[in-house]
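As the work plan foresaw, our protein records have gained a C-alpha cell line. A representative record is set out beneath this paragraph:
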Amino acid sequence: MDYKQDLITTIHDLGCDLPGLDDRLTELSQALPTAVLIPSLYEELERPALTQIRDHLAHCRFVNTVVISLYANTPEQYQKAVEFFRPLPQPTYVMWENGPRIINILTKLQSRGLDLLGHRGKGRAVWLGIGIASLQAAAIALHDADIVTYDRSYPLKLLYPLLEQEFGIAFSKAYYTRLSTNPRRMHGRVTRLFVIPLIRSLAQIFGELDYLRYLEAYRYPLSGEFALTSDLALNTRIPANWGLEVGLLAEVYRNIARKRIAQVDLGIFEHKHQAIGQSSDEGLQKMCRDIFQSILRTLMETEQVMITRDHMRALRVKFRREAQNLTRQYFVDARFNGLDYDRHQEEVTIEKFEELIMQAGEQYLEDPSGAEIPDWTRALAVMPTLREELQEATMTDMAEAQGILSQPLQAFSSIPTLLENRSQRLVQPISEVSTTATPGLH
C-alpha cells in the first residue's frame, strides 16, 4: 500500500466506498450546491469521449449545475451543442463563449478598461465558465472534454473533500496513471519527461525552495481535473496560455495555506494525445515553453530568485541528466509491467525538450511578463452585474437555439424573471428528465 504524504494532503484510493461517498456528497450538496464546468471545442461533440462524459454526468445526483464553456464557429454548431446536452437532468448552461452576445458583453467590459478580448483559448473559456458556475455553486469541479476513461467517480472524488467541512479543503487536484490500452503504453510525456526533471534540476541550482517543494508534491501537476471553492475561484487569476495547469497551481500557492490543498487518486486515466510539434510554437513543445516560463515567473515573484543566462546554461545540462536518469527508471517499470516502451523515442523527446530550455529562457529574459486574466473580483469591481449578464446571455442563446424565441433579446426582462420560471424548458435550458435511481459507481 502507498500511504505517502507530502506538503499537500494525498487522498489515496484504498478501496473507498464510492456508493457511500455518493450518498454523503448528495446530502451535502443540498446545502452546499456543486457545479461541473467543462471547457470544450465544438469538435469534441463529434468524438465518443464527450458522449460518455454527458451520460455519466446524468447520473451524478451530487452535481447541481453543469456549465459548458463552448467554442463554436457557427450558430448551427452551437445549436447542435445545445441539443447534445439536452438529456442532462441538471440545470445546464451551454455558454457560447465566442458567440455574439458574450463578445458584446466582453466589448462592454473592454470599454470600461478591462480587456479580455485579447485572451483566447482554454484560459478564457475557464474564466467565463467560472462566472456562471460561481453564481450557482459553493464548489466547482473542472475537467476537460476528451477523457476516454471518464466515469462519475471523477467529479465525486474531486468535490467530496471540499464539501466535507471538517476536512478544511479548498482545492483538490486529480492525480492518476496515464496508460493507453492498445497498445499498453505510458503517456503523460510533458509531466514525465519535462516537468519532473525540470523541477529537480531547478532545485539543484536554486536550492530546496518552498515553491519547488510544493510543485514536486503534486503527483501529476499537469492534470486538467480539479475542484475549488467558489470563493477561491473568484480570487484566482487564470493563465491564458498553455501553462494554465501549472499557472493555476502557482495561484493556489499564493492564495491558500498548504493544509487546505489535496490531491485525489482517480486511478487509470486516458485522453487524447498531442503531437510533439515541429517548433516551440506547436504541440507539446509550446506547452513546455509556456510551463517553463510560468515556473520561472513564479520563482521570481514568490521566492525572489534572480534568473540569468548562466542559470539557463546550467539548467540545460542538469535537465538532460535528470531526464535521462528517469528514462532508465521508466524502462524498468514498463518492462516489469509488460508495457510497450520505446526508450530511444523517449530520449529523442527529451532532446527536443532540452533545446526548449535555452529558447524559452531567452524569451523569458527578454519579456518576463505573463499572460494572465485578472481575477473575477477585479472584473466585478469594474462591472458588478457581469456574471448575471453572462448568465442571461447564455440563457437567451440557448432559448434561441431551441427555437423558443424569435426575438430573444426583447423577450427577457431580467434574470429574476428567468429564475422564477425555472420549471419551463426556456429557463431550465436542458430537459427536465428526473433520475430516481443511481446505478452503482464504476
Remarks:
- Residues 1-167+373-436 form a domain with the Spore Coat Polysaccharide Biosynthesis Protein SpsA; Chain A fold (CATH 3.90.550).
- Residues 309-336 form the longest helix (28 residues).
- Residues 406-442 have pLDDT under 50 and may be disordered.
